[in-house]
Design brief:
There is one protein chain. The protein is an alpha/beta fold. The protein contains seven helices and seven strands; from the N terminus they run αβαβαββαββαβαα. It has helices at about 5-15, 25-35, 55-75, 105-115, 150-160, 190, 195-210, and strands at about 20, 40, 85-95, 95-100, 120-130, 135-145, 180-185. Strands 1, 2, 3, 4, 5, 6 and 7 form a seven-stranded mixed sheet that branches. Strand 5 (about 120-130) and strand 6 (about 135-145) form a beta hairpin. It starts with a helix and ends with a helix.
Length: about 210
């Protein structure tokens, strides 16, 4: 579907005021939903992400997104009218190593400094479930970003601010201190931030269409 066609279809879908639940407390994902014009609720799944392990980042993010969806579906319970539940997960891959949220200042320093030496690839998994039909749709969302060397003072400012500890790989491309250091972006900013607009729109439209099957 071409972008213009997708935008029209999404606008028509949203005009019916569907109930949409974002299964994430991520500031970036909430901002992306608002930019798409989606009226949504937020429910946090609060799962033990460390209990789910996969070797491939693509498998890991989809497994985590599905696990979050399952927990929230149980919490919400049966529904009859269409309700659309959106869950997601993201990791950063750096030199073939999976990076999740940094757990210490030392780890955050290692992560942030490294991005000035080699690109960071974000691997996201998005899952949309139509709770009425119980049909689930999934997609990967991948992007890559290259940086200039990251100054120590920028790194330390980010760590002191603290938001890096809430971001996969401590990666905050949209931050005013980091964005000027970006030299190349393969993919979209919203994908880097945790949820590509075109990806989630496509999944929502698929889920909505499943109500008519």
């Amino acid at each position: 579907m071409q972008p213009e066609e997708q935008n029209r279809a999404l606008s028509n879908f949203l005009s019916s005021k569907p109930r949409i639940i974002l299964g994430s407390g991520s500031f970036g994902r909430k901002a992306i939903f608002k930019e798409l014009g989606i009226d949504f609720e937020v429910l946090k799944p609060d799962i033990d992400e460390k209990a789910i392990r996969k070797e491939r980042p693509e498998d890991l993010v989809l497994a985590l997104a599905h696990a979050k969806s399952a927990v929230l579906r149980d919490r919400i319970g049966p529904v009859t009218d269409p309700v659309y539940l959106v869950t997601a997960d993201q990791v950063v891959v750096y030199r073939d190593t999976i990076r999740e949220k940094p757990t210490s200042e030392a780890e955050a320093r290692e992560f942030i400094s490294g991005y000035g030496e080699a690109p960071a690839k974000t691997v996201g998994g998005i899952v949309v479930c139509n709770l009425a039909t119980k049909k689930t749709f999934e997609s990967l969302d991948i992007a890559e970003v290259h940086f200039k060397p990251i100054p120590v003072e920028v790194r330390e400012a980010l760590i002191e601010e603290g938001t890096v500890f809430l971001c996969a790989g401590g990666l905050m491309v949209e931050h005013e201190l980091i964005w000027p250091l970006v030299t190349k972006l393969d993919g979209t900013m919203d994908s880097i931030m945790g949820m590509g607009k075109h990806v989630v729109a496509s999944l929502l439209l698929e889920a909505a269409a499943s109500s008519d099957d």
